[in-house]
C-alpha cells in the first residue's frame, strides 16, 4: 500500500481512535487527524518491520485498518497523557 493510501487511512483511523479512547478531548480536529496519519503510518511500519506482519496489502483489508487504528490510538493516548501532565492546569490567584 502506498503512502497516500496510508495518509487517507490515517485520517479515518485518527477519528475512529479518538472516539474509542475515553476521556476529555483537548485537541482539535486537525491535531487528531495529524496524529491519526502519523499513527497509521507508524503502525504500518511497526507491523511490517518489527512484528513481521505481511498481510497489510490492501486498503480494505481488516488487518490494515486495525493496524492503523491501533497506531493512532497509541499516539492519541500518549498525546493526551503528555497534554494532561504539561498543560490545562487551573491557576488559582
What does this 3D model show about the protein?
This protein is mostly helical. The protein is built from 3 helices and no strands. The protein has helices at residues 3-20, 29-50, 62-86. It is elongated, with a radius of gyration of 15 Å.
Which features characterize this protein?
93 residues; mainly alpha; 3 helices
Short description:
This protein has 93 residues and is mostly helical. Helices cover 70% and strands 0% of the residues.
* Uncertain residue ranges: none
Coarse morphology: elongated
Strand content: under 5%
How much helix is in the residues?
55-70%
N-to-C span: 54 Å
* Count of distinct structural domains: 1
Q: Structural class given helices, strands, pairing?
A: mainly alpha
What is the residue-averaged pLDDT?
A: 82
Radius of gyration: 15 Å
Number of helices, counting only DSSP H or I runs of 4 residues or more: 3
Helix-strand topology string = HHH
The strand count comes to 0
Largest sheet: none
How is this fold's topology laid out?
Blueprint: H1 3-20, H2 29-50, H3 62-86
